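ingest -> validate -> predict -> emit
validate: passed (alphabet ok, no gaps, 269 aa)
predict: started
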Amino acid sequence: MLVFNTYKSSLNSNINPLNWNIMNATTNYPTLKTLALIFGLIFSTTALADNSLVKNTKVKNGLYFQVLVTGYQLDDHILSQFETIEQFKSENSKFNYRLGVFANYKTAKAEAKRLRENSIPGASVLPFFNHTELTMNEAIILASDQSKYESGFSVQGQDVSVEELNSLLYNSGQGVELTYRIHMGTYPDPVSNVDYAPEAHSMETQEGFFTLVSNNFESKGEAITYRKDLLNKGCNEAYVVPYLNGKRISLLLAETISELTFSDMALNN
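emit:
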């Protein structure tokens, strides 16, 4: 764990992200079908944004979820609760609906449960990526993609400017704590008490799935050693994840902060 005061150094625009190589040990390899979805559809110019949004939902690009109701005619009271309503025909019924456009699986799942509790049978969650229907397993694979965290300067998966980083690191008047955790897999529901990491706990992801998370490690080296032990015990998916004051940050940003810390230590000696 690196704990240091940040009144001496500051980031500047001369830092080149290309000068730092991401640790290969944390790389995950999705299926070919998933790679096609990521690299083919993500650059597609035909996937247009849907501006008819449901509250607390998103546009139709990237990974999203809709509530599916088949073979049941919904009344106006139910339909009025969704701004995005897509009715379609099938061989068995003309009353089929896709409702909402949810960025979060957990939110869509709660909506489907609410409909079932209101006597609407079979309401379920249907995942999509850029208008392409997925299986739930494919959605989980896409949600587990770590690339958005592995390059650039990002906090909680969102790119931040040099000015924002300077404010975060040097204008708070407090020390900065850099720690590391291991994230293990992605699951549709909370999990715990796994044999290879009984101390790990479930944490909800931005997409509304869940991942197992280890306790904090004070250094990246300790986290890597623990990760290797997990893999030897049968864990199939584990990532070294840096945190800054409890917020997830990119590996590049963590490396830069570490370098600044050692520079401060050298100046003080």
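Residues 2-28+146-268 form one domain.
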